[in-house]
Amino acid sequence: MAEKTQDFVKGLWEENPVFVMLLGMCPVLAVTSTATNGLFMGLATSFVLLGAGIVNSLLQNIIPDEVRIPSFIVVIATFVTIVDLVSRAYMPAIAEQLALFIPLIIVNCLILNRSEAFASNVNVLRAIIDALGRGLGFTWALTFLGGIREILGFGTLFRGTGAVIQVLGEWYQPMLIAILPAGAFITLGLVVGLVNVIMSKSFSIKELFGGSSAVKEEQTTA
Amino acid sequence: MTELFLLFMAASITNNFVLMQFLGICPFLGVSKEVPTAFSMGLATTFVMTTSAVVTWLVETVILIPLGIEYLRYIAFILVISSFVQLTELFVKKVSPPLYKALGIFLPLITTNCAILGLALIISMEGHGFIQSAVFGLGAGVGFTIAIVLMAGIRERLEFADVPEPLKGAPITLLVAGMMALAFTGLAM
Amino acid sequence: MANDKMQPRLILVLTLITIASAVSLTFIDDLTAPLIAEEAEKRVQEAVLSVVPDAVDFEEVEDENFEIFKALDEVGEVVGVAVQHDIRGYTGPIDVMVGLDMAEEKIIALDVLSHTETPGLGARITEDEFRDQFRGRDFSSQEEVDIIAGATISSNAVEVVVSEVVESAEDIQAAVESGGE
Question: Is the Cβ–Cβ distance between C135 and C109 less than 8 Å?
């Protein structure tokens, strides 16, 4: 049981696909101009991660090693096409915003990485748990980045949905750079830097929650 | 002619694949430590982009559309691109060993470069013709090379800069890329 | 590397996977294609009715250069013509619908059907402030359209695509007349 919990939790923080592993950077930068786009992209990627994880785990004894990568890519591309068709049929507005980056989930290194390094070596249950963990990790990271950029660039959260939240009032002069390509690079750079600070030896998130030696955090902020 | 020139400039500069459209970020961050390697990577990618633009255009026009199976586009494209990259590798190895030595190690990496699949998809979305596709592919490749070589040039100097500990590596590279993107945005306005 | 005995199995497995994938996608495509087509049709319908607000119905007119829609009121009178046309914007194609009042030689309104311009910059071509500049514009008007700050290319693209439609107004009118009753 502990092992399974570990599989799940790893993807959320310790081995977060975005902030720590820096996998799948293209969509991370391209679709995080709003929290809505980030969230949807995260969910779409998670679906493919889950589907490809299950199939590639089930097929591990059938697929010969020599054609492993091409087979994985075909399986991944199949699930991506499903996401693409379904989102265009049921969520056309968001699908249009993400346009090119839905098909590009195929070449998201995160998915190939999980199929190749994990799912094809373990049983289906573990593959599912791992996919859910990594998917959730990817989704929250994208939504978080999208949220920062959307608040700075528009003063809102989750625009384009029925539940737009006006975070900053009328007085706020939107910071255009946040939603421009430059803002994507700069925001991600700063957030990864911040994650490095939090992850550094003298600042342990475990200790923070465990309360054993929370004093240490002051050292890093100094 | 003017139209082709504009298409080339748009793909390489004003609408730079890497800095404006976020395509090909992995090699841009990963293979940009030194100028010579970055340049070789750029050349290899440009070659594959130009040729695969043409090949995927042919697959789409000759096979997918006549058969009415456009929904198999993604699978067809990715299979064509990965087999094409392999063929290129074999071909270069046989024809020009020196060139293979320079580009060889980068070729396998190119399959998962989303700029290649992205290029094929953009061409299909925008409905470019045969010549246009080739020019667009070449422009995109040149744009990729410009971005990665510039980045390598800056990173070579960053080696000697006093970068704060948590920003070393990926974060500072991303921040530099942000500045570059800002400059490229300026070109487009 | 693979010996000769392995080769057929490699090809067989890869082929089977590809076939399975193609079959399942054909099934999904059958399910979703009608919905996607319906959605696209709905978009066009909304756009036509928004650029010719007096219309309640419309008919498509055959033409080589443009997508032309003849906008009709309750009694079937032609109250305007909606023309769909696209152009390359900054990051990709911009698809617009222009409502034309042929009798007054004026643009009724403009709608942007789809685009992939940068959010916050080029994407502002969809905002009323920009689109309203075309409302009631004479076909012969030489007045320059106010450009969105930081989005010269997107703004110009829209101006060009609209003038392409307006310059062909006579051909469009001819197509409408010959294509109708």
Answer: yes
Sequence spans of domains, chain B: 2-188
Torsion on CA atoms A35, A37, A40, A43, rounded to nearest 10: -70
CB of C45 within 8 Å of a chain A CB? The answer is: no
CB A216 within 8 A of CB A207: yes
Using CB atoms within 10 Å of the CB of residue C180, give its burial: 0 to 12 exposed, 13 to 18 middle, 19+ buried: exposed
Å between B160 CA and nearest CA of chain C:
36
Which candidate from C21, C29, C150 shows the least CB-CB separation from B75? Answer: C21
Q: Pseudo-torsion of CA A61, A65, A71, A75, nearest 10°?
A: 40
> Higher confidence at residue A203 or residue C116?
C116
This model of the complex carries an ipTM of 0.90
Whether the Cβ atoms of residue A177 and residue B182 lie closer than 8 Å to each other: yes
* Two tokens, residue B82: 């990965």
**Which residues of chain B make contact with A183, given a CB cutoff of 8 A?**
178
Q: Which amino acid is at B183?
A: A
HSE value, Cβ hemisphere, 13 Å, CA-based, for A31: 31
Burial profile A67-91: b = 16 or more Cβ within 10 angstroms, e = fewer = bbbbbbbbbbbbbbbbbbbbbbbee
- CA distances from residue A170 to A166, A180, B17 in whole angstroms, order as listed: 9, 21, 35
Query: Which residue(s) pair with C114 in the sheet?
Result: C95
Residue pairs between chains B and C whose CB atoms are closer than 8 Å: 31
CA–CA dist C146, A51 (Å, integer): 49
- Residue C49: closest CA among C79, C76, C93: C79
Neighbours of B34 (CB within 10 A): 14
Closest CA to B144 of B8, B9, B45: B45
Of C142, C124, C145, C123, the closest CA to residue C134 belongs to C145
DSSP B96: -
Residue A163 has a pLDDT of 80
Is a pLDDT exceeding 50 seen at residue C54? Answer: yes
Looking at the partner chain, which of C28, C92, C152 has a beta carbon nearest the beta carbon of B126?
Answer: C92
Task: Give pTM, 2 decimals.
Answer: 0.88
Beta-strand relationship, C93-101 and C106-114: antiparallel
Contact call for A74 and C18, based on CB within 8 A: yes
Q: Tens digit of pLDDT for each residue in B125-152?
A: 888 899 999 999 999 999 999 999 999 9
Task: Write out the E strands in B134-173.
Answer: none
The confidence score (pLDDT) of residue C179 equals 65
pLDDT per position as a tens digit, A54-105: 999 999 998 888 888 889 999 999 999 999 999 999 988 888 888 788 999 9
Q: Does C14 touch chain A (CB under 8 A)?
A: yes
Nearest to C121 by CA among A197, A181, B141: A181
